[in-house]
Amino acid sequence: MNLYFKQRIFLLVLTVIFVQSAPAQHLSAQLNSVILNTQQGHILQLPGFLTEKLPSIDYQKVVLPGPQYIISDDPEYIRVPEIIAVKEAVQPGSVRLYVYNVNGIKEPGKIDRKITAVIKNTGTGNMHMRMLRYSSQPPTTNYFLAGKNGLRDYFLSKPDEKSRLVKPGAIIPIDEKLERQLVKYDELVHGFYEFVIDQPAEISILQTSPETPGPKAAARITEVASSRHTNAGRGLFGVSNYLIIAKDTLDTNNGPVNLIVADGKSDPWVIGKDASTGGLAKLAGNYGVMYNIEMKWKSTNGKGLALVTWNARAGDNKWCGGMANTIIISKGKFKEGVVQLPANELLTKAAPEAVLVQIFPPGKQGEIQTIHMTYSPPGASCLPTPFVFIPVDMK
After folding, report:
1. Of 283, 288, 289, 291, residue with least CA distance to 232
2. Are 310 and 387 in contact (CB under 8 A)?
3. Largest pairwise CA distance in the chain
4. What is the DSSP letter of 183?
5. CA separation for the pair 313, 316 (Å, rounded)
6. Which first-to-last residue range defines the signal peptide (predicted)?
7. What's residue 3's pLDDT?
8. Which residues have a Cβ under 8 Å from the Cβ of 60 and sit 6 or more positions away?
9. Range 257-264 average pLDDT
10. What integer best gives the mean pLDDT of the chain?
11. Residue 4: CB partners within 8 Å, gap ≥ 6?
């Protein structure tokens, strides 16, 4: 067999494979109707359509100015009755803090604990601390609920008008709710805060007895828990905000496409430093990092654009069976604002389930419009959580 025929057969085989594995590029009339008749945030069924093999949107990622960022999620389960989970020094300016820790005491028996966050003024003058965003969830074994509602409350919160005064060397609770909460075994404490300070400070997340004030425990505890390197991570990170801009204008005539962020590959994990070890820290999942997404699109075939998300990691392991999220999305068929995903259930499980985020009507022929989203990887959910843009016939 000569080279020409070998090449022809090879190309034919590739074509067959591609046709068999390529995702559907257009919705059926039935699925189109399902999308148009679904309420925002609700679960819908898209059998045979959802796949990670859809073409991906190529984008540029810009690091935006943002707060110093501390996360406490390694160890996630605190196994010692009284210990510090994370301790980091911060400078005057804005700070974002994500508390994601569980009472893990089970030996010699399961006991109630307090998990709290405190701040110490390490400067020489009075420190003024003002909360910009605040989200504090009750202790719960429903981690999906805590992550989903934690983002919702963070997005909806407003800055405090008054500041709190902290004397030099003094320690105060960052969140008075955490000070009052009783945390039972296996319950998650979920707090998400952003605040501004005008003196250098030291922030600690700790576990202690329910009757012990957090500042008192922080003053006497010297031991910091060992990192297990099995969860999102802990430490101080300089990157807290991204701007994601699609390189090309999406055209509805080209079919559905995927937007994938927080996958650890095309979008690597943020790197910081763990003060307790002096080593580098990796924020696996980029949890707590804010993605400000801008995407331009146009309709050259008269179709609108539906945006859905789904749990693409459902089959990975037993921890990935559900996904629950909250984002901010710009105006379309539904008003602009905060949307829980899903809004009619606690979580979405696996394909063919998807969640409708928004439907964008077409503009004039070829008119370029811009979609804005604010996304942060949802706590308790496996990543990535793809956003799928699907052309829909709205006539």
Report:
1. 283
2. no
3. 87
4. B
5. 5
6. 1-24
7. 37
8. 244, 245, 247
9. 97
10. 93
11. none
Cis peptide before 362 (omega within 30 of 0): no
The least confident of 128-132, 178-182, 224-228 is 224-228
Q: What's the mean pLDDT in 282-297?
A: 97
Q: Is-contact 270 239, C-beta < 8 A?
A: yes
- Cross-strand pairs, 257: 389
Considering the entire predicted model, what is its pTM?
A: 0.92
Q: Which residues of 130-169 are buried (b: 16+ CB within 10 A; e: fewer)?
A: ebbbbbbbebbebbbbbbbbbbbbbbebeeeeeebebeee
CB-based burial label for 196 (10 Å; 0-12, 13-18, 19+): middle
Peptide bond into 75 cis (omega under 30): yes
More confident residue, 247 or 317: 247
**Is 219 strand, coil or helix?**
helix
- How far apart are alpha carbons 106 and 185 in whole angstroms? 7
Is a pLDDT exceeding 50 seen at residue 23? Answer: no
pLDDT mean over 311-331 = 95
| Confidence grade of residue 227 (pLDDT, cut at 50, 70, 90) | confident
**Residue 7 binned pLDDT confidence (cut-offs 50, 70, 90):** very low
- Sign of the C-alpha dihedral computed for residues 321, 42, 328 and 360 taken in this order: positive
Domain segments of the chain as ranges: 28-64+240-392, 68-237
Cβ atoms of 174 and 117 within 8 Å: the answer is yes
Q: What share of the chain is helix, strand, coil (3-state, %, to 5)?
A: 15, 40, 45
* Residue 253, SS3 per DSSP: helix
